[in-house]
């Protein structure tokens, strides 16, 4: 998928390193959370709060993208992560298609607010922003990545990484490749519904 510079920016907004997620927690609860990513449930864990209306699209993504399921399992296993996903369609001068604001809590948790601004690209953008969360859980050093050429610093100070770009493209590609035509058409109508809902 070609990117113009303006359209390309699905940027990560604020980066604060998350502590490694090594605290002991209820292993059975974690296993249950992880299992929701797979059939038959095909849902994100309770730690990730989706805007109303996104559930069917996420289910569809989990059904058809192995990479997205893998991301879901990784995020589900992170006991101290809380995230929200919203879609907005407000017209403004903002050029980003999606962004994630990250905040480290005093208790050592990681809170993430993911904002999708281009609903029609939601499969790519969710895969992209989820990978930014996983980067934080992995404790990647974004400045070092930038020095090594695998990330770059945007003018607003946010980082963009090859890893997140590749993940988003993989998720979107898998959904396109694996979803039957009738499901893709259903997905297109879901996007219309979402657009209408958020245009109100
Ligand atoms: Zn990004």
Label this structure with key terms.
200 residues, alpha/beta, 5-stranded mixed beta sheet, two-stranded antiparallel ribbon, disordered N terminus, binds zinc ion
General description of the model:
The protein is of the alpha/beta class and 200 residues long. The chain has one domain (11-199). Helix content is 46%, strand content 18%. The chain is built from eight helices and seven strands; from the N terminus they run αβαβααβββααββαα. It has helices at 5-8, 27-35, 55-64, 66-76, 122-137, 142-147, 162-178, 181-199; strands at residues 10-14, 48-50, 81-87, 98-104, 110-116, 151-153, 159-161. The strands form two sheets. It has a five-stranded mixed beta sheet with strand order 1-4-5-3-2, with helices on one face. Strands 6-7 form a two-stranded antiparallel sheet. β6 (151-153) and β7 (159-161) form a beta hairpin. α2 (27-35) packs antiparallel against α4. The chain starts with a helix and ends with a helix. The model is unreliable at 1-11 and 14-23 (pLDDT under 50). Zinc ion binds next to β1 and α5.
General shape: globular
Sheet with the most strands?
A: 5 strands, mixed
Supply the helix-strand structural class: alpha/beta
How far is the first residue's CA from the last residue's CA? 30 Å
Count of DSSP helices?
8
Q: Helical proportion?
A: 40-55%
* Count of discrete domains: 1
Number of strands: 7
- The H/E string reads HEHEHHEEEHHEEHH
């Amino acid at each position: 998928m070609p990117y113009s510079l303006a359209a390309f920016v699905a940027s990560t907004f604020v980066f604060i390193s998350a502590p490694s997620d090594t605290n002991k927690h209820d292993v059975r609860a974690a296993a249950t959370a992880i299992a929701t990513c797979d059939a038959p449930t095909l849902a994100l864990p309770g730690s990730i709060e989706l805007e109303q209306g996104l559930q069917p699209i996420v289910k569809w993504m989990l059904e058809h993208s192995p990479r997205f399921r893998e991301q879901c399992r990784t995020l589900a296993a992170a006991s101290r992560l809380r995230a929200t996903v919203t879609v907005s369609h407000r017209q403004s001068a903002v050029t980003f298609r999606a962004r994630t604001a990250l905040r480290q809590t005093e208790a050592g948790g990681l809170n993430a607010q993911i904002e999708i601004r281009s609903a029609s690209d939601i499969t790519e953008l969710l895969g992209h922003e989820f990978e930014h969360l996983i980067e934080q859980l992995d404790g990647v050093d974004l400045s070092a990545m930038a020095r090594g050429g695998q990330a770059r610093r945007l003018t607003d100070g946010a980082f963009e990484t090859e890893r997140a770009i590749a993940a988003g493209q993989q998720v979107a590609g898998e959904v396109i490749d694996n979803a039957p035509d009738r499901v893709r058409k259903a997905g297109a109508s879901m996007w219309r519904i979402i657009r209408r809902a958020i245009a109100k």
